[in-house]
Amino acid sequence: ASSADGSKLVAVVDAGQIYTSTDSGANWTARESARNWKSVASSADGQNLVAAVYSGKLYTSVDAGVTWTNRNSDRPWYAVASSSSGSNLVAAVYGGGIYTSTDVGTNWVLRSTGDKLWAAVASSSNGLKLAAAEVNGFISTSTDGGTNWTQQTGSGARFWTSLASSADGTELVASTYGGKLYTSSDSGVTWTA
Questions:
Q1: Helix, strand, coil share (%) of the chain residues, nearest 5
Q2: N or C: which end of the chain has fewer CB within 10 A?
């Protein structure tokens, strides 16, 4: 994950540590402990970070990754995304629900129920438009910060692996395992291979 100017970067290693860079990736510093890290997201300034541990907790940092605080309960966390400010966050559980936070990750609220295999989430810059993709399923979207979700059948049931959003949440791109890239220009309602 990257800050808006590309100077502050953060990466996670599955069964390894978190790594941060403040010089656009020229040098890296190991942070936190070795865990089953799956995903990490950054605010626009690179100060507020959130990271997911599979069969562990969510972790947040407010100092660009120097120190981390564990949040919520042990779950198979799989994907996280952040608003530009880092205040509004979204996190998905593989085989579980989607959770959101509006206070930089201090408190989390379950927003979607069911046992979907969520593989990726994406957020607009204000954190109101969200998208989530499931393995062997559909892409779902929210326009109210995750309170309500709509399954977008136009995405088709596919093996989705990753998802990214434009700042306004209108343009989306998603990847499939062993398949094509798909784009949407209407906030996820229709998709083009």
A1: 0, 60, 40
A2: C
